[in-house]
Amino acid sequence: MAKKSFFFLGLCSALVLLVAGTRQxxxxxxxxxxxxxxxxxxxxxxxTDHKGNYITGLRPENFVITEDKIPEKLASFEExxxxxxxxVAADQPxxxxxxxxxxxxxxxxxxxxxxxxxxxxxxxxxxxxxxLFDTSDYMYRGFVFAQDAIAGFIHSMEEANKIAFYSYSxxxxxxxxxxxxxxxxxxxxxxxxAGDEAAxxxxxxxxxxxxxxxxxxxxxVVFSNGPDNASSVPPEDVAELAQSTGTIIxxxxxxxxxxxxxxxxxxERMSKATGGKAYFAKDWRDEKLAFSAIRDDLAHLYTxxxxxxxxxxxxxxxxxxxxxxxxxQKYHVRTRDGYRLMQQxxxxxxxxxxxxNVADQR
Length: 362
Fold this sequence. Notes:
The protein has helices at about 1-10, 145-155, 180-190, 200-210, 235-245, 255-260, 260-275, 285-300, and strands at about 15-20, 30-50, 65, 70, 75-80, 85-90, 100-105, 130-135, 160-170, 170-180, 220-225, 250-255, 280, 300-305, 315-325, 330-335, 340, 345-350, 360. It is α/β, with parallel strands linked by helices. It has a domain at about 130-300: von Willebrand factor, type A domain (Rossmann fold, 3-Layer(aba) Sandwich), CATH 3.40.50.410.
C-alpha cells in the first residue's frame, strides 16, 4: 500500500498538466521531482447507438458534465470525424489553440465568413498515438502477421497526428519516439525481434508516463499475445494513472489470451476504465480489423474540456458525462470515469519500484 500511495501522490491527476522540472529516468532510477498545477480537465468522449455506430453532429449543449456531482461549465468542444469543429465558451480562455481548426462561434457571436476558404481538417489532427508491441516468447507463432497488422495501422493514420512505436518483452524498448515521420515508425516495427518473458504492466506504466505531459487526444494501442508474467506493477496502478492523465488504452490480444480468464478480465477492465476498448482476435484478419476499429474510434471522439469548480475533495474525483436533448438518452457515452487530484503544492515523489532487470531502453 505504501508503494501505491507514493506512486499516485507524485503523478498527475488531470489530462492537461503544467509540468516543470521533470525528466524521464531509467526504470530502475524512478525518483523524480514533479511540479503540478491542475488547470483544465479534458475528456475524450465516444457516442454510439445500440449497434455501435458513431453519432456525429452533436453540439456542446448536448453534453452535461458533473464532477463529484458538481455541474461543470464546458470550456471547449471539439468534434472529430467529418466535422472537425471546435467551440470555445465566450467567457473562457482557449485551452488548446489548434492551427487550422474551424472554430464554432459562441452563442451570439458573429459567424465566420463562409467565403473564406479553410484547409481540410484531419479527423486525427493533434492526436498522439503510442503503439506498444508484445515481442515476448508468446509472439513466436504470429510475429510476422502482427508486424504486418501494425504496419497497416500506421499507414492508415493521417499525417496530421504523431505516432511512437515501443516494444516490450522483459524490457521496454522505445524503438521510435513520437514523430510524424511514418517511414521512421515503420523501420522501428520491422526492426523488432522476439524476446523472452512479458512485462506488460511495467512497460505500459512507462508508456503512460511518456504520454502524460502531452495535450490533446492521446492513446496507447497495446498488441499483446498473452498474460503478463514478469511485472511488479499491478494493472490497477497503470489503469488509474492512465485515467488521471487522460490517456486512452486500447488493447488488441488473441483468442489465446481471451481463454486465460484473469488476463482477459484485466484487459477488458483496464481499457474500459480509460475510455478505450479491448479486442480479441482469432487470426491476422481480425487483428487488422481491430486496428481499423481503433483508428475509426479515434477519429470520432468528441473532445470536451472544463475548468473544475471549487471542490474540497483532494483525492479521486468522479466524472459523469450525460447527453441531453430529444432522444439523446438512447445513445451510449464512453469516456474515463474520473481522475485522482494532485495537491497543488510541489511534491517530491517516488514512483513504484520496477525490477532492475526490466530495462527502460531509449
